[in-house]
Amino acid sequence: MSYQQFKQDYQGKKVLIMGLGLQGGGVGDANFFTQIGCQVTATDLKSAEELTPSLKRLDSSVKLVLGRHENQDFQTPDLIIKNPAVVPESPYLKIARQAKVPISLSTSLFAAYCPAKMIGITGTRGKSTTAQLIFNICRRAGKKVKLGGNVRGVATLPLLKGLTLSHWMVLELSSWELAGFHQQKISPQVAIFTNIYPDHLNRYHSMNDYIFDKTAIFKYQAKENYLIINQDNAETQQLAEQAKSRVIYFSQVDWLPEWPLKLLGQHNRANAAAALRAALILGLDQDLIKYTIGQFSGLAYRLESRATVAGVEFINDTTSTTPIAGEKALQAINKPVVLLAGGASKKLPLAAFAKMIRQKAKAVVLLDGSATDELARLIKKFGGRQKIAGRFANFSQAMETAYELASPGEAVLLSPGCASFGMFKNEFDRGDQFNHIVEQLAHEEKV
Predict the structure, then answer these.
(1) How buried is 58 (Cβ within 10 angstroms: 0-12 exposed, 13-18 middle, 19+ buried)?
(2) Cα–Cα distance between 272 and 270 in angstroms, integer?
(3) What is the share, in percent, of the chain residues with pLDDT greater than 70?
(4) What's the predicted TM-score (pTM) here?
(5) Minimal CA–CA distance to 248: which of 168, 192, 287, 170?
(6) 304-446 has which CATH code?
(7) Residue 343's closest CA among 260, 248, 417, 273?
(8) Is the pLDDT of residue 447 over 60?
(9) N-terminal to C-terminal alpha carbon distance within the chain
(10) CATH 3.40.50.720 is the classification of domain 12-104
(11) 119-171: per-residue pLDDT in tens?
């Protein structure tokens, strides 16, 4: 399969983009279908005002239905591209199914036409960092390589253009995207499974449903393909027994203590080990692999040190949307921490996070949200009542309080362990607001 085949199959078709969104994928897909001669409609429950950044980048020929969905739009297209965040039970998708309209997810449709060899990375935590590491290694080694999937600001379908058999395609894959891989009955030739922890239980009926979507990363592999999987994680150990392909285990201890690593935390030693295993499968030089991983200082919004103001380090870990992510962040920082935590519920267990806050945080500033009452209750239950410095619906006030509590040599850490909706548009909006306030503080210090 190839871009030319894709163009031949869809040229002139009527395509509905369900969920334009703010992350770039919907806009990129809409523009791509327009460029190959499709009649494109984009529909989103968000208003035009909310979608302003996306609309500025959208081809003017795309028909827009915003602030609502119209039933008839789901009855007549030749193809619907569903935003991964749209639940399968959507009544509008039911209308499409009754009308026998094909429904696809962008990344899995890409995979069905991708001529390149694919390296797919999934897991509850670590998939973004591991994907970036593998991409960096391949690029340094001179491989033809592209990065897509669940990557902010990147639309994956347009990457078909220019892909050849000699390319490697690195795909970060969320559980929602992998649901589409089940639909296409396709898996990457090299699959990496970083770990499994409870997540998205506000969306999935059970952990079993969540894990099932994840298993598409390896379920349709051939015997000669590879599954690289975490031997330190109980859930992934059990999943490895289902694989038909060649199973290769990795552990955080595989990244030796004497090897350089700028990334903080034991969890990042595991990510480095996973990338190492993948690169060795590709036949790349171990010294080149070690050097490339050792030079990587991390991705934005993931334990990202933004600035030090009056001796206080500000660390942005806004992609911490699960309790386990908050725990890992607290474990990774070797200095006293004033933590910004709390937010919207994903129906995940909070007890271990609350214990870690009591043990490791100097103080915790709570952000308003549906999970915050339970988090506060558990922190108090485990003896951390005196560490709670208040609950805030105003993020600027929360940041001001955290800064006042931190002394020189300490850190203010945004690692909420909860989702962002309510106070923020999404977790990146939360992180951007954090960065903006830090920039203001740094500017005031210089004046």
Answers:
(1) buried
(2) 5
(3) 100
(4) 0.93
(5) 192
(6) 3.90.190.20
(7) 417
(8) no
(9) 59
(10) yes
(11) 999 999 999 999 999 999 999 999 999 999 999 888 999 999 999 999 999 99
